[in-house]
Each structure stands twice: as C-alpha cells, then as structure tokens.
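pipeline/complex-builder :: batch 7 item 3
reading input block
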Amino acid sequence: MLSSEQQKQRKRAHIIHAAARVFAEKGFSGTMMADIADHARIGKGTLYEYFDSKEDLFFSVFEWYARETEAAAKVSISALGGSASERLAILSESVMQSWLKMKDLFTLVMEFWAASASSQMRKRFKGYFRQAYEDFRTVVAALIREGMQHGEFQEDVVPESVAAALVGSWDALLLQAWFDDRFDPLTTARNHVAIVIRGMAGGARVEL
Amino acid sequence: MLSSEQQKQRKRAHIIHAAARVFAEKGFSGTMMADIADHARIGKGTLYEYFDSKEDLFFSVFEWYARETEAAAKVSISALGGSASERLAILSESVMQSWLKMKDLFTLVMEFWAASASSQMRKRFKGYFRQAYEDFRTVVAALIREGMQHGEFQEDVVPESVAAALVGSWDALLLQAWFDDRFDPLTTARNHVAIVIRGMAGGARVEL
Amino acid sequence: MLSSEQQKQRKRAHIIHAAARVFAEKGFSGTMMADIADHARIGKGTLYEYFDSKEDLFFSVFEWYARETEAAAKVSISALGGSASERLAILSESVMQSWLKMKDLFTLVMEFWAASASSQMRKRFKGYFRQAYEDFRTVVAALIREGMQHGEFQEDVVPESVAAALVGSWDALLLQAWFDDRFDPLTTARNHVAIVIRGMAGGARVEL
Amino acid sequence: MLSSEQQKQRKRAHIIHAAARVFAEKGFSGTMMADIADHARIGKGTLYEYFDSKEDLFFSVFEWYARETEAAAKVSISALGGSASERLAILSESVMQSWLKMKDLFTLVMEFWAASASSQMRKRFKGYFRQAYEDFRTVVAALIREGMQHGEFQEDVVPESVAAALVGSWDALLLQAWFDDRFDPLTTARNHVAIVIRGMAGGARVEL
DNA sequence: CATGAATGAGGCTTCATTCAT
DNA sequence: GATGAATGAAGCCTCATTCAT
C-alpha cells in the first residue's frame, strides 16, 4: 500500500509524462493546459494541485527529461571498460542509442533550447543547460585526458575542445536526423568518432 | 530617387531587422506585434501592409536570416584556395567567424528550431532546414572527397559522415557558447577541426 | 434539481434571450460580444463556452426566433375551426397578434433579412427563410384550396398566389408599423383579409 | 463642356453606382471603402472628397435608390388611364416590373431596412422610410377612394388598409422571390391584385 | 481531493480615415 | 484634385487560472 505522499509523486510523474508528450508535439505555446489534462485523463483544475503554473509544469518536464538523459549517460559511462579509445567509442554509441530511444521526445529539447533562449523562464533553463553541458564536457574531457596519460592520444590534443565537439556532435546529429528522415545519425556518429580518435591518436591506425 | 518598389523593399527589410531583434530577445510567442511596430517606429497596422500575419513576418525573418548566413558561407567557400585540409580549416574558421558576428541573433536559430519542431509553421521551417543542412553537408563532403582524391585523406573516410559532424559541430559549439560565456567556440572549433583533419589524413602529419 | 445538461440548455437559452435584445437594438455589426455578456451578466469568455462565434450566436438567436414564431403559427393553425373563410381570418388575426407580442424584436427580422442578403452567413439564413416561407405559403394555400373544394371560394382563385400575398402582407404590415407608430397593422390586416376573402368568394356575400 | 460643378456631380453619381453594387453584394458592414474605390476605379482617398464618411456614402446610395424607385413609381402612376380597377392593376404591374428590373439591387433594400432598424443611422433611414411608405399608401389609397366614388368599389372598403396591404405585398413578394428563385412574383402579384379588386368590387366579376 | 464552468486580461488583426506628396 | 501609405482605435477570440461544488 502506498503512502499518500507516494501516491502524489506517482500522479505527478504521470502528469509529467502526459505533458511531455503534448509539449513535444505542440510546443510550449501551442500546448493548452486542457490538452495536457485530457491526455493525463484528469481534470484541468487538478493540474494546479500538482503544479503552480504552465511554466512550472514545463520546467518540471524539463527536469524529468534532464534526469532521464543524465541517468542514461551515467549508465553509459559507468559501464565502460577498456582503452580510452574504446570507451570513447562505446560512450558515443550508447549516448546516441539512448537518445534515439527517446527520439519522439527530441522536439522537447528544441523547445527547451528555445525556452532558454528567450522565454520568461530563460534563466532557469539557461543555467541548467550551462551546467549540464559543462558536466558532460568534463566527463568526456576526463576520458580523453586519461587516454593522453596512457599515451593513447597525442600530447597536442586539447581535451576540452574535442570533448565539446563530441558532445556537440551528438546533439547536432540528432538534430539533423530530426530534419531529415533519411539521415542516419548512428552510423554518422560512429564514423566521426573513429576519425576523431584516429586524429587524437596522431593518425595511427586505431583498432576499435 | 527610389522607385516605389524599392521603397517598399527597403521598408520591408527595415521591419524585418526590427522584428529580428525583438524575436531574438523575446521569442516568437513572447513577442507582440506592437513591440515590433514600436521598434520599427511604425504603426501597428503598417506591419500588415508588408506581412500577412505574425507567422508570415516570423518566416520572413527566417528567410532573411537564412539568406544572410548562406551568403556568408558561400563567400567563405568560394574564396578558398590551397589543399583540402587548408580549405576545410579555413571554411570552419570563417563560418564560425561570420556566425559569431551575428551572435546576438543566435537565439533566433533556437526559435527557428523550435518552430520547425512544433509550431503550426512546422512544415515550412522543417523543409527549409532539411534542405539547408543537406546542401551544407554536400558542400563540405565534396571538399573532403576532393581531399581523398588527391590522396590527402585516407580511403576509409566516409565524407558524408565527417561533413555532417563538422557542420553539426559549428551549430553545437555556438549553442554551447550561448549557454556559457566562458566557452570559446572559435578555439574549440579550431582544435577540433585539426584533430578531424589529422584523423582523416591517417598517418600523415598535417601542416595547417 | 436540474441535470447538468438541462442546466446547460437553460443557460444557453438565457444567453440567447440576452443576445436577442442586444442584436435587436444595435444590429449584428453594432453589437459587441462584450455587450451581450454584460446583458447576460456573464463573462465574455463564457459566451464562447456556449457558442463558437458571434455568427454562431447570431444564428442561434435566429433559430430561436424562428422556432418561437413557428410555434405561435402552428398553435394558430391547429386551433382553427369553422369555414375556410373564418379560419383564414382567424389565422391572420392570431399570426398578427402573436407577432405583435414580439414587436420589440421585430428589428431582429430585419437583421435576419439583411444577414441573408449579404452577410457571410448568407447561405444558412437564406435557405432557412426560403423553406419557412414555402412552408407557410403551403399551409395557407391548403386552407384556401379547402375553401375552394367546399365551394366557398371561386374556382379561378390561384391558392399559391393569394397565400403568398397574405403571408407577405403579415410581414409587410408589421414592417410599415415599425416605421410608423401611428400605423395600425392589426386593423389593416383585418380589413385587407376581409377584402381578399370576399374577392376569393366571388359573388357570395361573406359573413365573418 | 461640363462645368466643374457638373463634373463633380457626375463623379459623385459614378461613385454612388459603384458603391450600390458593392453594398448590395456585401452589405454595409461587409463592404470596405477600399472595395468601393476599386470598383469605382478611383483612389481610396478620393472617396472622401465626395463623401464625408462610409455612412454618408451609404445614405447617399439610399437617397439615390429611393429617388430611382420613386421616379419609377411616379411614371407608373402618371401614365394611368381608365377605371380605378384598371389603373390599380396597371400600377401593381408596373411597380413590380420596374422593381424587378433592379432586382440585383434588392438586397440593398434589405440593408436599408436593417440600417433603419438598428444602425447608428437609424433615425435618418427610419424617417425617410416612414414618409415614403406613407406617401405611397396615400397615392394608392387615393386611387381606391376614387374607385369608391365612382361606384366601382364597395363603400365598406377601407382605402388606407387595402393600400397598405397592396404596397406591402409588392415589397413582400419581391422578398419571397429573392429567397426562392422558383417563386414568380409577377404572376403572384397579378393574381392577388385581381382578387383584391374583386373583393373591393363586392364580389362582382371584374374585367381587367 | 478532484473537477470543469466561469472568467477577463491580453493579443492579433481589421479597416475607416488622414495627410503628405 | 487625386492618391494610397500609414495609422491606431476597436473588437473578436483564446486560454491560463480560479473556485464553488
């Protein structure tokens, strides 16, 4: 039997999932609170028992989405073994894989970007994104630095730069895939990472 | 003395510039037509002499922005000389440079992405973006392929993949720079491109 | 206690009555939705819970008005007894009487005519009017034909023509009364019907 | 060669004709000053050289229309000869004929009615209509009274009532014809007038 | 707690009118 | 005189939010 608090959390989560689908499809402005209530099969008024406002709900969706993708990334990273090159390749692969699983929610990311660009919620979103990107770059840079320390990668490599570009490419390839159904982001990422690894390795042939 | 048609075009452009500033600052939904009229120092009704609707104006801003960035990219490409590696590095540099010049309008791009994700204008935006990315990838891939034909780059390189990642990294690094003032996208791009070029070159040392 | 559906119908009717008064006074274009809301003592937004648009509300007022006058006419007709002449005279009398009761809403009819003449709602109104006039003419013509079969009226009478003129005169006399306070449509109608009946009866003296 | 004043009057009339067509098609509210200017092949601003406002122009159209129909009616009346019955029948016929000629402008009448019902111009229109109907009734009543004096019509006839009904029937039959293409107002009017004349004559057979 | 009917501030858009050319 | 680009008041409608049930 669930405590009342757990009940509440469950319902909150339920609403967030419903809202995520609707926001993904129609965008923040295009979404009506009534839409969300309908999708969650609850009354419009009930939404306000769980969230203060539309913005609050949207931000809650953002937090949920961020937690999900972070969790996925952490799993990817923690499960790594082998050389830095291998681990980098596997990380790229598994990040892409896990994001592709949520592909239909990718439009949410675009909405979040836009929200951090110019909405009234700008600050909250922007701060969160800054931190998230920084964290992610740091993790990847650490991996690269490790590879440099092990002599896998050349000393002229700037870990932060390559990390930023790699992290960025994961976003950007999904973005391009979103615009174009015929675009294959997985293969593209694989090929690109292989080149980057070989580049970092100094041009030496790399076995993955 | 200007012809009436030229006058009209001038004023249209004037409104588009004003609108671009306001949309960039407040986003599509956050912007009121009255804001734009004020910024353009014209009456609210005058906007409708030049544009059918808020959406039409927004899309016109998009077209203008797209033309501007395209033009900048074309200049970069046409002015290239030297080896494929050099030309790639210069292209990257100049694309980043020219986009950075419009940095304060970068939020527009996020708005455009969001618009193609879920607004009612989705189709128009999405189609345009798909084409633009494809065109850009094609140009860059051609450059890489050239490098392969000249023996600069290894035969195992997949030009389309690297092109997509490069194009994507330009977007993505600007995005990260937008979130974080301390992030330097120019240097990052330079470092990344160098690695990619060395990766494509295989064993060959590359002079940039 | 009323069911929710009944409640809704009641409120709808309430709004229609309020709207009828305002439309009657200011006409379709002269009426603002806010006026109607004020008169109905509800919020502006509430109107849209019950009607899709101003036009929809206007047409609903029309339907209500048409139902009311139709109902009145049907009562008049069904309650008839006696000779065709008597019934015709009584019908005329009671139609005029019942329409005079709604005299202050007669301007609505003029608005409806105008709406069927040239508004965007033209088709809906026009079709309805065509049918209503046809139905009414048919009923009156049947009455006249009956009189002909009973030998009350001459054989050279064209029932449809007289019916159309009688039905028309009811409209037209109210119209003239509307323009001129000193004009007495009831007496006028009575005198006219008497003449028409005598005319249809040919040589026969008619007792009313 | 025309004087400047005549020039002005000509152009004024030209605008009125153009406006009449547009108002007839779209109604007062549905008509835009720009529409009228286009139809008159003049600039929007020019309209205001000739008319103070949209309402002024509309009323001018009304005056023109009223003058036209009055003139037609006067011609009908003045040309009459023969018995009162004959003259009445001919009057009816020629009024209907002349109005049918302007059939495509009949919607204007509905607009005028509506304008006198509830527009801001109500008073001007209403007063004019009151007078016009009164005048018309007076003319027809005089004709009937003449017939009574000559012994053509019975003494129990109330000339004003029959006149009102006849005048009304001309309006009303055109109205019904407007709603229903299959309705023949001319024949209907003929048949009705014949009955009315016979009724006034006391049921005696009347030769027309 | 849950609901959904009611609300009204807010924003897009229209169009009669003006006035500089 | 004629024009039509510019204007801004006005009005329809939406939708986040409230609150009585």
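note: The two ends of chain B are 50 Å apart (CA to CA).
queue -> next item
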